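Z., the sequence and structure:
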Amino acid sequence: MTHSLVARVVKGINIAIAILLVAGLALVYWYVWRPLPERSGSIDAPLAADATVSFDTHGEPHIHAASLDDAFFVQGYVTAQDRLFQMDALRRFAGGSLAEILGPGLVESDRESRKLRLRRIAEEAYVTLPAADRAAFAAYTRGVNQFIATHLHNLPVEFTLLNYQPRPWSTVDSLLLCLHMYRSLTTTWKDEIVKHNLMARGDRAKVEFLYAVRGMAEASAGSNGWAIAGSHTASGKPLLSSDMHLEYSLPGIWYMMHLEAPGLNAVGVALPGAPGIVVGHNQRIAWGITNLHFDVQDLYIEKLDDRTGRYLFRGQVEQARAEREIIRVKGKPNVDLTTWVTRHGPIFLSEGDERLALRWTAAEPGMLQYPFLDIDRARNWREFTAAIARLPGPGSNFVYADVDGNIGYHAAGVLPRRRNYRGDVPVDGSSGGFEWDGYIPFDELPSVYNPPSGLIVSANQNTFPENFPYPVNGNFAPPYRAQQIRALLSARGGWRAQDLLAVQKDIYSAFSHFLAGQLVGAYQKRNAHNPGLDGAVGLLRVWNGQMDKDLAAPFLVTLAYQHVRRAVAENASAATGLAYEFNMAPAVVERLLRERPAGWFGDYDEMLLRALADAVEEGRRMQGRDPTRWHYGDYLRIAINNPVLHQVPLAGKYFDIGPVPMSGSSTTVKQTTQALEPSMRMNADLGDWERSLFNIPIGQSGQILSSHYKDQWEDFYNARSYPMQYGKVDAKSTLVFRATR
């Protein structure tokens, strides 16, 4: 080949590469860069008056509008700019239409959502929604639809990759997203099935022991948050902290937001798809909210004829209503679904010959309301509790503080009042003997206001007193986190907002430390000298209970706990140990090991040593022969993947988080597991709002090329936070909505 020919070939290759590069850049610009949110300039919009949005360093919108309607319109618009695909995916998940865009792998997910009747519930709820709530949702919906209508050919890249356009938004869609949160936080029916199966095969008394609803010692009421009176703070005014724990997602579930309009000036986190602020503060009060874990679902075993829908109730034949659904499936035939709906709810499960109907507070007529707009404007404890009394669910713990120096806690939500049963296992639906007798009055729910200790500490534990007048059931958390929070807060005074990050990131596990001591004690009592176990026992002997990603002992004790828990469950009900994953299980195991009652294990130490040996062997299979080289973080590694871009070859991984090693556990204040982590952090200073701290785990925007796609991750991962801008906003850009009406 001549030199000139080689030169021409090389030139041709270079030109081809240049063309491909330019074409690739053009595609990236057109489909990914062009749809990025507008954060400056002006937009014409159907508002009553001009509105402005100031975006701060992390892309949080600070909205200033002349009316509530305009504020919610703008909130809907700017949220859709950043989170439209997330909003659309969540309404599809809740409504049971994911298979339409993602294919047959999502049919079962859609089937469950359809059986839960979530869209039908939302449609029925819309009719009874209070007028003020409906007006707020309508304004928000108009904002979302303004964005969709003006960006149909300029949508986030996920819509292009999946080859569909979102339908217009509706208030029913917003209610669906509220039901999605309700559903995520009230899934006790799963525990009822597991417990029912354990009882069918095992010792009923032992199974009841496994499903305790109370830990060995309860701390004060609340959940994943705390309020500190001014007597314990540097400013003399209260501090309030909240770090709700939810499942990982990218983007995260919360959207940082500041709304200012006549009668409203609130900042905090909002639910993408719904107006207002869910957790945050206004000019006078701060509040946190997380899951109460009270059981609001019952399963009924119905005597039902699948062919006709006829079933028995109190000796009479009743007719179930048939609801027919069509699940559209991308690239495949539609799936037909018929659900029989009884007086107790839809036939949700079939277990052998049994047909189980699900009764759920969210499905009760006239139940769905939206109190957060009243919460956002509350000025004192009286107005705040009046607002949260409207909350239907999920059952929630509210922690409160105000600028006058008061702190408080109140449980809220519509909770079934059961007579003569707890609702912890499926019951006979035909007898009529297991019906709800209304709901527990709000004023009788657990509450506290200005306790003498000056501390309200909360972490998902059972908040109901032992003498509570109604049966209590739920998947409550063991008390370890609450006890550790109280211990840390009581150890000193002069607290400032920035000091509380150290509490939120605390990774000491009293339970795991206790179990390590039990394992070491069993080894020493036997005077055992096993070369295969000596090194592991040595690690546990000197360990301080910190669930640190860089240590070996947390990994070993976690594996040992799994074997102990399984042994305990197998003892209660043979061959079903793997199914037992109840939240209160650590407290159940601790009580068993402390009291060592007869009838469980002939030799508790032998059981512990067997669990230790199994854990060491499992650890060696996973991380090598030498326990001193193990790392807990290599076991507790989490990956948060972009739900669509993750599938793109080569490039997709750049839009994911991790895998990264994590510290913490289910029993540490920084509650971290394979499934969930803190979903936000807020430390509100009632003495000076500008000293408050605030952030979310990943970033504001779901748009992959946005500078706010994952700009908060490193700081959140390392427990650093940012000023919660309120009165003084450091605006990096300003977007003006110009009124056109």
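Residues 3-33 form the longest helix (31 residues). The two ends are 73 Å apart (CA to CA).

Let me know what you think.
H.
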